Amino acid sequence: MKEIRPLTSLRAFAAFLVFMFHYAYVYRPENLGVPFDGEWIPLMPLWRQGQVGVSIFFVLSGFLITRIYFDAIREGRVSWRQFFVKRVARIWPLYLVFAFAQHGVPILRGMLDPSSELLVTLTMTQGFFFDLRYEGLPTAWTLTVEESFYLLTPLVVFVLARLAPGPSRPGARLDAAGLARYVMAVGVLVIGLVAVGEALVRVVTSQGWNWHGFMDSRFHMHHATVFGRFPEFALGILAAMIHRGVDLDRLLRGGRATATVLVSAIVVTLCIWGKDRATLDGGDPPTWLTLLLAYGVAGFTATLILGLSTGGGRLHRALGHPLLVYLGRVSYGFYLIQLTVILEPAVQLSYELGPWRVPALVVMANVLSAGFYQLVEVPARRAIVRRWAGG
């Protein structure tokens, strides 16, 4: 499938949300005794809930993986070997470079002994361990979820092909009955994986296997593992099958695509604001409310993706600007570099820049990420794919 440039730009926005979440809680200058003038405070409700950028990533990943590979694998144009080699080539090279820096620097300084946290970093399994989920590369727990989704992709393709075989080819008309079958197939996957997660928590806790908090609570399972986060991928999967079977350029022609994008973005923003207000009201917000708002973000991210997937007008062309697209391409490094020793000098420098400290830090982080993208990510990915995937 040809690159949908506005979706690449959306990745940059999601990574930026997560970055500002970390700024609001970790990098905020007043936390380190640096005078803070209150710059960007009007946007603090958005920054405090910036973790929703992770949900946007998961929905987008579900969409892209399904849309790119579902038909290619069923038709034999891509083998499972090629699929997994490409996923490894995409994720692991830059991850290992950052992990080496994050662990290597403290070890060389005598501040850290190689231990279990190094083991979970090297195996990218942080997300399964409650006590270790932020150790090593602090953002890598989400990669545990992402990699788990990749491992589940054969199951996703099998269930979709078995329970919802039509339309038989991309572009064939998807009727209401076909859409209902896709909803049923995705629902079976969601219910099945949540049930497996619940069962694992019960077995692990009853048998005392919860080493370092391994799958030791329902909260952790739902928050930080693929079993609980799969519904976000599922919304992306469903959006991909709709994109596959519906002529969106015809359905959303004229100003409809722009309206879909704007309405979806507004609702996502309102859900983020609602989550922030619920959190600030004091005490623990009702679980059903935060869950509803969280899935509101994920659900309308899916409609946002569909709106951005059309030819569109000026808005789509603006989001397809080469600079925004490039920021989307380097967003993996921009996401990984957060909270690492690599970014720390830039953080310290930014504190001297007053009201310009936030944009300056964002620019410096993106420049560093672009360097890693050009020097590590792209060459390594090409070499791995050429060597092990045959192209």
* Percentage of residues assigned to helices: over 70%
Q: What is the global morphology?
A: globular
| Largest β-sheet summary | none
Helix and strand composition category: mainly alpha
Distance between the termini: 16 Å
> What are the segments in which pLDDT stays under 50 over at least 5 consecutive residues?
none
Got a strand count? Answer: 0
Q: Mean pLDDT, rounded to whole units?
A: 87
The number of helical runs is 17
Q: Could you spell the SSE succession in H and E letters?
A: HHHHHHHHHHHHHHHHH
User: What share of the residues does DSSP label as strand, in percent?
Assistant: under 5%
**Rounded radius of gyration (Å):** 21 Å
Question: What does this protein structure show overall?
Answer:
This protein is an all-alpha fold and 391 residues long. Among the domains are: 143 residues, no CATH class; 58 residues. The protein has 17 helices and no strands. Helix 3 crosses helix 6. The chain is globular, with a radius of gyration of 21 Å. The mean pLDDT is 87.
